[in-house]
Amino acid sequence: MRIAEAIQEMTGPGVPVEFIAYDGSRSGTRDADVRVEVRSPLALSHIASSPNQLGLVRAYVTGALEIVGDMYTALATFPEMSPRKLSASLLMKVATKLAVAKVLWPTRPPAEESRLSGRRHSRQRDAVAISHHYDVSNQFYEWVLGPSMAYTCAVYETENTSLEDAQYAKFDLVARKLALQPGMRLLDVGCGWGGMVIHAAKYYGVRALGVTLSANQAEWAQKRIAQEGLGDLAEVRHLDYRGVFESDFDAISSIGLTEHIGEANLASYFEMLYSKLCAGGRLLNHCITRSDNLQDARTENFINRYVFPDGELLGPGRIITQMNDTGFEVRHEENLREHYALTLAAWGENLERHWTEAVREVGPHKARVWRLYMAGSRLGFERNEIQLHQVLGVKLDNQGRSGFPLRPTW
């Protein structure tokens, strides 16, 4: 068996990709824009151990399999983002190759693959899951995200809008949807590096509290707040959103937190946010969703293993229904999936621009996870496999009044 032909067989016919392998074999389209290189028997071991998307991911993350060319172009070239199932005969041939190469099979997954223990979405397990992704390196995130340190979908006026301008526009859109005014109190749950907290305090004179489960994020945000001279208005705490003791907030923003909540906790999540608002208070929930309400929240794919452990994406209808049933009157909703594709493209460009420094900072395996995750997610938003929804709700007063004008003001 020639290895290059075997790998090509997994991807299906007609794919304009060149395949080469350490045994000297070559297959596919010569001089294609994308080349798959099998550099070590370890790649075969990963693929044979998990003959699905996860096996290829493990091979790539470890460097045993290399993608030469732009990662986004590579993923877009393949008809599917998961390989065809290995036939029994092909799997046997792979096993023979591994025996000859004296490579153990199955192979242990890379250390970057998350393995959590304890009750799903308990406070302790959530803290570990968040730390896995966010407590990587603030320097690494500064290279990828840019000066805004905003790790959520930006809002683009045009395709040529800069990432920084688009992130400012996102925070300002949230602020206007929440109708923020000087003297109001804002709670930002899952606040990241404090972008919304700082924006609300700096541009709207709002007293803003942000909470995050990432110690790195909280430390960075507090330093940024001090540098901006906003210490009298803004604060970020290293705290689970369920641990906030204050109430009677005029507004709550949740930008990129709902994905981490879990379907089983969705009702209690919105109930908690509802209880923290004063009458007439608004909630803006901004999160990634599935493209429909028919799919289960898959929890055993590449994103869950390597990027967002315990993350669960729900359909937009599930989010809206739960907000409504909790007591919020839903006043506005919009899908920004094309904006997230543009955001991820900008992050991907930043990563490639700082690739050498990024590898030195977080290691080659972690950097490869990010390259794969951002390119794949960009493709997912473009193909409507995932979406980004902002849903605006209000807590009515005891006479059913919303305080909304007749037409939107944002």
Automatic annotation (TrEMBL):
E.C. number(s) listed in UniProt: 2.1.1.79
SUPFAM superfamilies the record matches: S-adenosyl-L-methionine-dependent methyltransferases (SSF53335)
InterPro entries xrefs: CFA/CMAS, CMAS, SAM-dependent_MTases_sf
GO molecular function: cyclopropane-fatty-acyl-phospholipid synthase activity
Keywords of this entry: Lipid metabolism, Methyltransferase, S-adenosyl-L-methionine, Transferase
Enzyme class: transferase
Pfam families: CMAS
Biological process (GO), any one: methylation
Domain of life: Bacteria
Protein family membership: Belongs to the CFA/CMAS family.
Protein name per its UniProtKB record: Cyclopropane-fatty-acyl-phospholipid synthase
Native species: Kibdelosporangium banguiense
